[in-house]
Design a protein that fits this description.
The complex is a heterodimer of chains A (315) and B (500).
Chain A (H helix, E strand, L loop, with lengths): L1 H31 L6 H26 L7 H18 L4 H25 L4 H20 L9 H8 L1 E2 L2 E2 H19 L1 H11 L1 H6 L4 H27 L10 H11 L11 H20 L4 H23 L1
Chain B lengths: L3 E12 L2 E12 L3 E5 L6 H8 L7 E6 L2 E3 L4 H6 L2 E4 L11 H5 L6 E2 L2 E2 L1 H14 L15 H14 L4 E5 L7 H16 L3 E5 L3 H7 L2 E6 L2 E7 L5 H9 L3 H4 L10 E10 L3 E9 L3 E6 L5 H8 L7 E6 L2 E2 L5 H6 L2 E4 L3 H5 L6 H6 L15 H14 L16 H14 L4 E5 L7 H16 L3 E5 L3 H7 L2 E6 L2 E7 L5 H8 L8
The chains are: A mainly alpha (315), B alpha/beta (500).
Chain lengths: 315, 500
């Protein structure tokens, strides 16, 4: 009996280790920088992680099927530039523009999903192709120039707050809740895990594996569309070079959160904690005036640490 | 008039390099248990996978209740009342028992999955097959035999009219088999059709009403279970007397070459001791997952035992790893030849010389191609590997020839001890006989052989001595004179420890 209890405790600690690390880091930072534990700074952190958090949620769903999506950064740029262009050239209400950005993201995701699922193409390569295509289309559409002078009511999406909470953070929370419900409470979510856990078993159980595989990329594309709106509104412009290397941050948050890149195992809240961890580290290093060059090295080491913990856990 | 539920007519199916089914026929009668017999590679599973919508036939038709049907996906077969228990376990390890049981047909309240209902239905379903486990347990925490019982329960959950069971008893205990047969009896009385694939003769005569025999992808015939006896059946399956299959043994066991003492790996196997002598074939028997392969993996240094000692030629081996073990003269023909025995996309030549490249190249690492080709050609001849040429990719070859290439790889290294793990799985009878001959010849040359097999006749036909495993323990050791199917089976299941 005693052994069982201990086993449970160990598992419990491993499961929530990430949260302890984040809290520990927060405590340390609040000691070495008086600016860290201030409302303004913390709100700033949660505002900054919104974009990566949303992308990482999409990425996690893709990774759960054993796939990967390298195109998210480029899709963010493309959706963002389209939204910015529509704001400049048309008088459509904001909601139409938001929907347009999401549809653009979804269509890009459909491209990924279609070729991965129905042509059995390697996700790495298909999304790599989308990555350059979307980036290229962004430059073509914008002629390589930023699109600025956007309507102020649109900018509120990125800069505003409701009841003191930044709007991007609220959007992240909504996306997270919807994503969690989908993954744990709906059939679709269980099929995502099943496909990643054992594709063959899922197939013989009568699950439409190809459709599931396609849909996860569409969802990732939709996440890109949402993230693009927030980013464009926050920086007040559609930038053709926006979102560069965002896919790497999204993958990092996913992996730190304990999602297995070979599929079938992972949780959305882990991903969110992963995104928070990355956000706090970036913020902390900023506060300590550490150059952004060093920040990249630190980020790399965190990813390595997360993978080592994970492989220890599974051995 | 007999009530024919399903009929397959003139089915032909080709895979690259093999004709898996050649113009076969099969039919199922309402309320009967139909056993499908034949050696590995006879095409039983292939036909069932066609019926269950996993493969599509190249030629021929399937009729369900007299109507022609073509299933392109398992889902179509399932909705038409055909479910299948697969030979290869296919659990989703990171999901719960309940989620696995109802995968693809979850209970929902509106849009949401109704976990409470699913868990209670899972408990009820498990009760039916005599398994008492919490439905929220993760699949990966189950033993192999428990997983198999869950697979059986899963097939029942579809409430299908036709239930295909592909070797459901291969990994479960006697008690569970009895349970399974009770369930089958109930289904039969319910008017369902059962297809039961097995290699175990006693089971066939206990449960089957009708028996269809396949051999090398051919339909041999369908018989009433009361009109045929075991010997007739075996002759139909293998088309020769059993004695001809296994080579005459002429082994003179000499000095001890390997000694394993109290080898343990926590949670996997415990306290395994045995010795092996030159010129001897030591059979390892037991159900799949009973620890046979795991002990070999530890011996070969692939996994790390928690305690115990290994002596090779009287010398203690510290911290075994594959490289060290190979250098001590052990070769390991693994169970999964496609997974870790061969590089399927590479040629016969490349595969054969792969582990010997350093011996065949000069100091700069340049391969001596002439010498390498000579060696590859020599072993191709020696083992009678049938291939259009050395540059043929191994993917295109039959299972038997692939297995010979794996063997060739090891023989070039000239090992003293060779471990064979299920060397004849999935290869046809002719190739099997050749493999048996090769193994017997090696023993005669003075090599020490460990021969792992789930097939009882193979163990009895090949071994000089048999060790039996059950749930990670060595439960018996028998000389070939003492060994009978019954005694091995007793040691290999949780029945009273045979006579002891």
């Amino acid at each position: 009996m005693g052994e069982k209890t201990r086993g449970f405790d160990k598992k419990w600690i491993q499961t929530y280790m990430l949260i302890f690390i984040v809290i520990g880091l927060g405590v340390i930072l609040s000691f070495i920088s008086s600016n860290f534990l201030t409302v303004t700074n913390l709100l700033n952190v949660v505002r900054q992680i919104a974009v990566n958090g949303i992308l990482a949620i999409g990425m996690t769903i893709v990774c759960l099927t054993g796939g990967i999506d390298l195109s998210v950064g480029s899709i963010v740029a493309f959706s963002g530039i389209i939204a910015a262009g529509m704001l400049r050239d048309t008088g459509y209400p904001i909601i139409i523009i938001v929907l347009a950005a999401i549809v653009v993201g979804a269509v890009c995701g459909l491209y990924n999903g279609y070729f991965v699922a129905y042509w059995n193409a390697a996700p790495f390569v298909v999304t790599l192709s989308m990555m350059t295509i979307a980036r290229g289309m962004t430059y073509v559409y914008s002629d390589g120039r930023p699109i600025s002078n956007l309507r102020t009511e649109f900018l509120t999406i990125g800069k505003g707050s409701i009841a003191g909470i930044p709007i991007p953070t609220l959007i992240l929370v909504v996306v997270f809740i919807l994503g969690s419900i989908m993954l744990t409470k709906l059939k679709f979510g269980r099929y995502v895990y099943a496909v990643g856990g054992n594709e063959n078993a899922a197939m013989v159980s009568g699950i439409n594996v190809k459709r599931i595989k396609m849909m996860v990329y569409v969802l990732s594309g939709i996440a890109c569309g949402i993230a693009a709106i927030i980013l464009t509104a926050r920086v007040s412009a559609g930038l053709p070079q926006a979102g560069e290397s965002y896919e790497l941050d999204a993958i990092a948050a996913t992996v730190i959160g304990g999602t297995s890149l070979s599929g079938g195992r992972g949780r959305l809240w882990g991903t969110i904690v992963g995104a928070v961890l990355l956000g706090i580290v970036n913020n902390g290093l900023d506060l300590l005036n550490v150059s952004s060059f060093y920040q990249q090295i630190v980020k790399g080491l965190i990813i390595l640490g997360a993978i080592l913990i994970d492989s220890k856990r599974n051995s | 008039m007999e009530n024919i539920v399903l009929e397959a007519r003139n089915i032909t199916k080709r895979f690259p390099g093999v004709l898996a089914l050649s113009n076969v026929n099969f039919r199922l009668v309402k309320g009967k248990v139909h056993a499908l017999m034949g050696e590995n590679g006879a095409g039983k599973s292939t036909l069932m996978k066609i019926i269950a919508g996993i493969y599509q036939a190249d030629e021929g038709n399937v009729f369900l209740h007299g109507e022609k049907v073509v299933f392109h996906t398992p889902k179509q077969a399932l909705t038409n009342g055909i479910s299948m228990i697969h030979q290869e376990l296919s659990p989703i390890l990171d999901m719960t028992i309940a989620e696995n049981l109802f995968l693809g047909k979850e209970f929902c309240k509106g849009k949401f999955i109704d976990y409470r209902r699913m868990n209670s239905e899972a408990t009820a379903l498990m009760e039916r097959v005599g398994v008492d486990l919490p439905p929220t347990m993760l699949m990966k925490e189950l033993s192999v035999s428990q997983m198999q019982m869950i697979e059986i329960a899963k097939a029942l959950a579809y409430n299908a009219e036709i239930i295909i069971m592909d070797e459901p008893s291969a990994t479960i205990t006697e008690r569970e088999i009895a349970n399974l047969f009770e369930i089958i009896q109930g289904l039969k009385e319910d008017g369902r059709c059962i297809v039961y694939i097995t290699h175990k003769m006693d089971e066939v005569f206990r449960i089957a009403d009708e028996i269809t025999v396949f051999r090398d992808g051919q339909y041999i015939g369908t018989y009433d279970a009361d009109d045929i006896d075991e010997n007739q059946l075996v002759v139909k399956m293998v088309n020769r007397e059993l004695t001809e299959i296994y080579p005459k043994k002429n082994n003179k066991a000499a000095d001890e070459i390997l000694r394993v003492e109290n080898l343990c790996q926590k949670g996997v196997f415990e306290d395994i001791s045995f010795t092996l002598r030159k010129g001897e074939i030591l059979g390892f028997s037991g159900l799949m997952g009973s620890g046979r392969t795991e002990v070999m993996n530890a011996l070969f240094g692939i996994t790390h035992p928690t305690s115990g000692t290994i002596y090779i030629n009287g010398e203690k081996v510290d911290k075994p790893n594959p490289r060290k073990i190979i250098s001590k003269g052990i070769g390991y023909v693994t169970e999964d030849r496609k997974g870790n025995g061969l590089v399927l996309e590479m040629s016969v030549y490349d595969n054969t010389i792969l582990p010997s490249l350093s011996k065949l190249s000069n100091r700069m690492g340049v391969v001596n191609r002439r010498k390498a080709l000579e060696v590859a050609e020599e072993y191709k001849e020696k083992l009678k590997i049938k291939t259009p040429g050395l540059q043929q990719t191994v993917k295109q070859l039959s299972g038997g020839n692939q297995q010979k290439i794996v063997l060739a790889k090891w023989l070039i290294q000239n090992p003293d001890i060779i471990i064979f793990d299920e060397p004849t799985r999935g290869i046809d009878v002719g190739a099997k006989t050749e493999i048996y001959k090769l193994v017997a010849n090696l023993a005669e040359e003075g090599k020490a052989i460990i021969f792992i097999s789930s097939e009882m006749p193979e163990i009895l036909g090949m071994s000089d001595r048999v060790i039996v495993f059950y749930e990670g323990k060595k439960t018996g050791e028998l000389s070939i004179e003492e060994a009978t199917q019954e005694r091995i089976m007793m040691y290999a299941s949780d029945v009273e420890k045979g006579g002891a």
